[in-house]
Amino acid sequence: MSGNSFENIRICIFDKNQREMAYEILKLETADGIGVLTISRPQALNALNSAFFREMNAMLDDIGKQDDIKVLIITGDGPKSFVAGADIAEMVHMNSEEGYRFSITGHDVFNRIAGLPIPVIAAVNGFALGGGCELAMSCDIRLASSNAKFGQPEVNLGLIPGYAGTQRLPRMVGVSNALWLLMTADIITADIALRMGLVQMVFEPDQLMNEAKNMAAKIISKGQAAVKLVKAVVRKGADMDFASASEMEAREFGDLFGTPESGEGMKAFLEKRAPVWPK
To answer: Residue 1 pLDDT more than 80?
Structure first.
């Protein structure tokens, strides 16, 4: 895939009444089955505000209608920041009820990202702090540049994470590691995040997006029904007891037999050739 194959940036969508919505924060580029969604508030280090959540909800509606996007990559604009957190300038004026609604809005949007049927890769290109770390954790896979930094520094503000950070982080890195980060507000490097299991791979900054696209292309080369089902079974099973989740896996495994995709995949393996997946 050439480095300049992402040429057309979509900057608007249409709602149910076909009214154009211009994007000021988000940019979506698509090519070869890969969507690259860039958060662009560089003047605020891509901090999350109410406008971001409105646009992201609209963007997720749009992505859900596009069969040409097989894998989504989420990244931040500029070399310094993926997302530096929620916008404190907006939060400082909120009362208790407004803070609660701001939290619920973030929960809903990040749960929608986690629940997308397609794989979502976070390409963390700098600071992923507070809401930025929570956004990255809502993605299926996290790749980081070597200059990335991760943390949940909300206690510095007299707050706790508001976008499920207290729930996703311990599930990913263990309770003690999560409590260390949540209670001290320590900021960790990409290498520490890798050892902790918060990210899966670390690359040099100039290689991050190429590697994210390479991973996306590898996923696209597999059976797409199976890829989507892997995500669905893993995500659903994580909140189930082991026996019930294993039974779900067995049923979903069995249901794939006799489908065109599994038939082609197994036949291609036996014939020692690359599969030609059905459309």
So the answer is: no
